[in-house]
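User: Predict the structure for this protein chain, please.
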Amino acid sequence: MNTMIIDNIETMHNIVENINIGVTILDEQNRVLFWNSFMARHSGIPSSDLVGKNIFETFSYLPMQWMELKLRSVRLIKNYSFVSWTQKPYLFRFSHSSMMKGESIEFMHQNCTFIPIKNPATGEIYVCITIQDMTDVVISHMKLKEINDINKTLELMTNHDNLTSLYNRVYVEKQIDFEFNKAKRYGNIFSVIFFDIDRFKDVNDTHGHLAGDEVLKNLAEKIKSQLRSSDIMGRYGGEEFILLLPETNLENASSLSQRLRISIEKMVTSYHDIKIMVTISLGVVQFRPDIKNYLQMIHEADIALYHSKKNGRNAVTQYKLTGCRLMNCSLPG
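Assistant: Here is the predicted structure, written as structure tokens:
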């Protein structure tokens, strides 16, 4: 029986000594009682040089105030305490041997567990500290974040206009198509507003294309600030823009169009010492079951926009089956 106990103790000692987890045991004076091969290998200090010495004297970089409080708490409460690498990246400044290269991680990231152990002979409470190497997990997290950031950048580049940061034509058409199919199936309503800047070529010819770019960016911000989070605005091309308004009927879309028209009429774009003012013309259409596809809907909004242009610009026109109806407008002087 005694031989079996001795064999078990020796077996346990061999396991703890050779396990790929750091294990050290401190007495109540924080002197090292045990220092397994993992700790020796990563610290560069063999157990024979460390046992019996105060841990803080050997590793002066350890957060002494925090760690002494932690050790005291574990001994007092007689319960273990866990510290994740997300809370404290590492306790011991160990080098790491991660096979995942290319990351600037200087020290091994660690999960640390503080476990109280009672000496049955003296009643003294020791603390066993285990160190688990989490460096590969950390690097995986970093690589995953890097991939997510790249994907977000690619998505931004794919779906957005570089100048205005609005959605681009391809993305908005996909969303209108989606909304159109949903309306066909479930009977939802939605509207589309198509608009462009009146006589924008004159702005570019008079003040230059950089000034025109400032007008486009200013207009995009001005319009976006008046939309709901569910509305989608895109740059359709050049000085043309398109708005998708879910759950919005023709009258409400027309009212919004008037507000947008008036706000742009009052907008001033400063470019160096130049003050530039522009107006917009808009066409509005609401989904109807008789419309064949989303392209027809955009085409009808474009026809309404053309009607606004033809009738003096700076205007809003509704497209209806009975024909285009010009709303109240303020013609530029």
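Residues 2 and 8 are 10 Å apart (CA to CA).
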